[in-house]
Amino acid sequence: MLSTICVQMMNAFLNWKSIMDVVVRTYSGKGSKELFSLLEMHKADVEKLMRSVTGFESYTLARSSESDGGLSMTVCRDKAGTEESVRLAKEWLSKNAANISMDAPKVSLGTIIIQATKH
Predict the structure, then answer these.
(1) 8-state DSSP, 99
(2) Domain contains 96
(3) How would you label 34-47 residue by residue, b for 16+ Cβ within 10 Å and e otherwise?
(4) Which DSSP letter does residue 102 get?
(5) Neighbouring residues of 57: CB distance < 8 A, sequence distance ≥ 6
(6) Max CA-CA distance within the chain?
(7) How much is the pTM?
(8) Is residue 98's pLDDT more than 50?
(9) Are 28 and 69 in contact (CB under 8 A)?
(10) What's the CA gap between 8 and 87, in Å, rounded?
């Protein structure tokens, strides 16, 4: 009986972990080089902001090797978390990057299929 309960709990945990949401914001074109220079200067603040998101799992900010822009990827336990991260990113940009004339990012929302890490 105990082993059945343990298996059920483990299955519930694995199912919960596999249903995570992701948002990818891709910045390119006008102003993206300046934006990523600004983000790099404020990376500790940006990381702290993203870690404050409810259901936060991970955050990645990367420069593109193909353009002057880059992308950010936020993984949260649910859609509410990714939507909160989009809202916070917009607020941060309007407060800290209002002087940069830039193209709007391409925002893609989705569900994680595989999330692999070294550990």
Answers:
(1) T
(2) yes
(3) ebbebbeeeeeebe
(4) -
(5) 20, 75, 76, 77
(6) 63
(7) 0.80
(8) yes
(9) yes
(10) 36
